[in-house]
TrEMBL record, chains A, B:
Residues 124-218 bind DNA. The keyword DNA-binding applies. It comes from Spiribacter onubensis. CDD domains: trans_reg_C. It comes from the Bacteria. Residues 124-218 form the OmpR/PhoB-type domain. SMART domains: REC, Trans_reg_C. PROSITE patterns: OMPR_PHOB (PS51755), RESPONSE_REGULATORY (PS50110). The modification 4-aspartylphosphate is found at D51. This is Response regulator transcription factor. InterPro entries: CheY-like_superfamily, OmpR/PhoB-type_DNA-bd, Sig_transdc_resp-reg_receiver, WalR-like, WH-like_DNA-bd_sf. PANTHER family: REGULATOR OF RPOS, RESPONSE REGULATOR PROTEIN CARR.
Length: 221, 221
DNA sequence: CGGCGTCTGTCAGCGATCTGTCAGGTTGGG
DNA sequence: CCCAACCTGACAGATCGCTGACAGACGCCG
């Protein structure tokens, strides 16, 4: 899950990044409005956390431009003053959720998860597929009730496949979402992770369609 | 836009109904938890506004049960006390948005609209032509309901013809699209692929107009 | 600081599958 | 009738995905 944090205050930005990273997101951040506008337009994020109080370019304008350009990713808006008229403005501009400062990191994380979940079309933080179960809150995967011990990277891959269970996910997409675009990784890196995952969960769990990509299937299918 | 308001206080319930009706929704309401549970499970709403403080049955339990039953409609949760831990609980249970009382009706309406808007954004990636069906999500093609096993290249060709079903596509265009411009492939490469496709799907599916190119047609036309 | 264990990307080799090429055959228009 | 366009089967080289081995990176702890 790739998330972009747009926030000018370096300290808050770092805090947000840390919290989201700890929650299993791949967090990138940016403090400049124009850069944010560009990256939101060109890159593929699962979520954007957007502070409205930016110095260079108004957050609402950025959001509006994204929407005008047809970008539909979930956007969680942060703002310092919590008047309801401002909330309405944010939502009308195309925000998916709204969080007034000050807020608890736990709440931000919960809302971030909810947005990603909702975007994926699922209602609950706990999802099951076959005898597999993914708990987004605890970042745990269980199989037949038994916990599967996964590394952070492995979990992110499984979680991504889980959220896109109805599709075959191209390797390029996995590369984009597991690592930032700046990092150049070999396709083989994904293959290595897949191999390790299959060793842990059984070869049947993750399927591959040559030339297309990977997909998840319950082991009891 | 059909919306269900679940709220035990008759006055608030009426206010909500009025505001939503004025906003263009078709509002139904209900004050009892068990009835709400049933209607949410069996009826088809575009949105549900759910008060957590119900006498008979806890709102969170209702929500959780809906989600467990696979009901994915947007749910906007209302609650009296606005502690952040409660919000987290609501969101974790599968709420799509959260509004603490007291709130302004304008904000509720704005959020309701946003939720419905977002849920409507699920454009279908499935196209049909004759007895052929192309699922862009799964990157799969079915014929008369039966899946056709295609390689990546074959799929790309079919998908391209599908997207340009209304015209005859020149071979040069297919070459350009299937391979990068830099790669020099023989026209015969395309012909080979076409042959393989016809063998898999039946010769009638892909037509050719001598000197012009290829086109797709449903096999039952 | 140094040692230790874990995580993870890279490399190389292997099968299996895919797919472009070639060498014909077939068709259709002029 | 002739030529170009198209079809097709066979085949070999290319590609893709899988895996084991390895080493650099990182964090942890004494």
């Amino acid at each position: 899950m790739r998330v972009l944090v747009v926030e000018d205050d370096p300290i808050i930005r770092a805090d947000l990044g840390d919290a989201l990273t700890a929650a299993g997101f791949l967090a990138e951040s940016c403090g400049d409005g124009n850069e944010a506008l560009f990256r939101g337009d060109t890159e593929d994020y699962d979520l954007i956390v957007l502070d409205l109080g930016l110095p260079s370019l108004d957050g609402l304008s950025i959001l509006r431009q994204w929407r005008d350009n047809g970008r539909g990713m979930p956007v969680l808006v942060l703002t310092a003053r919590g008047t309801w008229s401002e909330r309405v403005a944010g939502i009308e501009a195309g925000a998916d959720d709204y969080l007034p400062k000050p807020f608890h990191m736990e709440e931000l994380v919960a809302r971030a998860r909810a947005l990603v979940r909702r975007a994926a079309g699922h209602g609950s933080a706990i999802q099951t597929l076959g005898d597999l179960r993914l708990d987004a809150n605890q970042m745990r995967v269980t199989q037949r009730g038994k916990p599967v011990s996964l590394t952070a990277l492995e979990y992110r891959l499984v979680a991504y496949l889980f959220h896109h269970r109805d599709r075959t996910v191209p390797v390029t997409e996995l590369l984009e979402h597991l690592y930032g675009d700046d990092e150049s990784r070999d396709v083989n890196a994904i293959e290595a992770v897949i191999t390790r995952l299959r060793r842990k969960m059984g070869a049947e769990v993750i399927g591959n369609r040559r030339g297309f990509g990977y997909y998840l299937r319950g082991t009891d299918e």
